[in-house]
From TrEMBL:
Binding site for heme: 448
Cellular compartments annotated: Membrane
MF annotations from Gene Ontology: heme binding; iron ion binding; monooxygenase activity; oxidoreductase activity, acting on paired donors, with incorporation or reduction of molecular oxygen
Protein name: Cytochrome P450
Cofactor(s) this protein cannot do without: heme
Domain of life where this protein originates: Eukaryota
Main localization, broad class: membrane
PROSITE patterns per UniProt: CYTOCHROME_P450
Species in which this protein is naturally found: Gigaspora rosea
Residues of the signal peptide: 1-15
Pfam families in the cross-refs: p450
Any one Gene Ontology cellular component term annotated for this protein: membrane
Amino acid sequence: MAYVEIVCLLIFVSSIFNLIKRPRIGANEPPLVPYRFPIIGHSYSFSHDTGNFLKKCKEKYGEPFSLYIFGNVRTFTGVDSTPEVLRNSEIFDFHMGTNKVFPIGDVLRSFTEINTTYMARVVHEQVSSKINIYTSRLQKELLFGIDKFFGDCKEPKVFRDIQGTFSRIIAKPVANVILGEECAQFEDIITSFTVVENELQKLRFVPKILFFIHPSLHRFFATLPLKFGWNPISRHRDLFVQRCKPIIEERIRQRKELGEEYIQKEDLLDFFISESEKDVVDNEYMNKLFVNLYQIVFASISTTSRFISLALFDYSGRPELWNEIYEEQLKIHNESNGILSTEDVNKMVKLDCFLKESFRYSTDPAGLPHTLVSDSYTFSNGTTIPKGRDVYVYMKDTAFNNIFFGETSNDFQPNRHITSYRDGKIIHTPAARIDRSFITFGGGKHACPGRFFAVVEIKMCLHKLILRYKIRTENGKIEPPRVLSLATFPSISGLIFENRNY
Ligand code: HEM
Ligand SMILES: *[C@@H]1O[C@H](CO)[C@@H](O)[C@H](O)[C@H]1NC(C)=O
Ligand SMILES: *[C@@H]1O[C@H](CO)[C@@H](O)[C@H](O)[C@H]1NC(C)=O
Ligand SMILES: CC(=O)N[C@H]1CO[C@H](CO)[C@@H](O)[C@@H]1O
């Protein structure tokens, strides 16, 4: 028999064996929720009605609990045990966990080494801490996008694919901050920003059944194309090189020529150029720049456009909120003469509370996968999980918990984020602040470093839209988000825009 046939036979036998075998779990482990069908385990219930399924599991088995999904035991933490995972970032590895779901790390590493700690620091120091510098450019680019994609709307007009539209609108200001004014001029670069993340999906064609045989087999086949030199984002890297290399060379030339006199440009491209020791713009140099810059593209575009769309649907379906929010925007618009500063954005308290409530309301059923990298971990509850276990956060358990939000936790109430004191003082918890009750941006050391930037950008965009248009849903009712497996997405129905001034 040929080798190939022997190997096939072995794989076949081992897969049969694995398929009927029940997962083994240790004595002190969190309860493994029982399931009826050995091969499928919880995969079906989990993918089809995630929110309700997790709710029932927690009610019956407490937390944390484990599920058998796609050939893998995964542990889920609820409101009490989640902080333990987010706090102990040394042993619960966020990047390893995420990479299993979305192999961004594998894809980027084929170009150059990546350092996620460094990237988080850069976003914090160079993006979120510098919002003041970026506000006027953000505003200009957002207005440009709103004009281009929504236009005048003298007559009421229906827009579909809201999230797609916002990813186009958002990509322009983000490109401006990341690549700088010059590179952000190129239409094809903007398009590339909006689609590059989807390209990664092409690595996920590998059938889930491989997971049952062994999870590492699935990963092996999923990343096989990379080993043969096919990379789903090469096209985008080539475009980046074609468009931006001349600009980068010019900047480096000026740097050399002016020396001390050179005034650093306010964008991430110039920051990375200044950090680099080399000044020869070769392939290696361009790969490094590409990976550093596009990591931020991956982290920022789809998240921001998803949440801005969710917020707009929340707004459009609730006419009772319109007046209050509109009045606030009008006042700030008058006071600022239409040119917003960071302070003006901070004054949008009603809008901020609305946004925070929208974030809370559209929290993903579960997410934030972390892989345990220490030998074992014992939850304060007494249950223990072994090394290598993937731990998911059952996020809705926190976002809709009565402990934090009382009996009204299921209602949409922006004002819950405001506390008024008897002496007239009003305090609100800002949308970008994370705590035990609010984990849309994660928590602990790895909490999203771009959240301050994201919140300013979303508020600015909503402010402009609300001032200019009346926006409602097609049927006049609330359009609830769609839940696709673990994540929440905006409805695919249309929104009607109508200019306020006609
Ligand atoms: C509404 C928009 C956004 C949401 C909901 C969001 C959410 C998140 C979440 C949940 C995490 C993981 C946190 C954890 O593990 O505890 C994260 C990480 C991250 N986000 Fe965001 N994000 C948004 C926008 C942005 C933007 C605009 C940027 C960049 C400008 C950004 C950059 C990052 C980076 C670099 C990380 C990795 C942090 C680390 O590894 O320590 N995010 N984000
Ligand atoms: C990654 O970056 C951090 C912070 O800039 C630095 O302290 C660390 O040494 C870097 N790690 C590697 C492996 O280069
Ligand atoms: C804003 O200015 C307009 C025109 O100047 C005025 O009619 C309106 O009352 C002002 N609104 C607020 C909230 O200050
Ligand atoms: C703090 C904590 O995680 N408590 C849990 C301990 O286990 C019981 C039963 O499994 C749960 O009901 C608690 O929530």
